[in-house]
Amino acid sequence: MSARLLGEIVLLQVQRMPVKMPGGRYDPQPLLAVNEALLGPDGVVGRHDGAWVLDAHHAAHPARRGSAGRAVSLGFTGHYRLMEEHFGEAPRGIGGENIVVECPERIFLKDLVGEVVVRGAEGDLALTGVKVAAPCLHFTSFLLGLDRVAERPEVAEHLEFLGEGMRGFVMGADPGTAPRLVRLGDQVWVHSPSPTSG
Q: What is the C-alpha separation between 164 and 166, in angstroms, rounded?
């Protein structure tokens, strides 16, 4: 098993409510930045003003989006830099990722094979089952500054640009894993299987 440091957490946030509004528009208003959060198999709970706030993907959220195995979403500062170059503006975290890592590189799914490990003061939390967060028409239209949700042929090149993990990744924690407290500045590692010899 080999270990690689991806970087430190520079943004933690929760979606208080889904960001896709009735009618299909993408609205980032429900995004709430926090200094610490509990991560576990059921999802993310952020701490804000002395209270705990459920992420919209958490198993206990009444408006839950997504399915089991999608405990947390992860993005990278390098991706936001590329999105800003492409779209003209892409504020860090606007995609709604729970965690944004300070990492200048372009990260692909193959770079996250194995376990993504969040390392904090309370110990490590291993995240597995990494999948690409597929770009949607709503978010793409928002980045383009459109006042409507575009048809797929109109924005096909932009959807392609946001594919292969540019939009971020989603992953889960094994059932029975105790939730861990995660804070800004905690490290995110990848533990990958060592190549087999011969």
A: 6
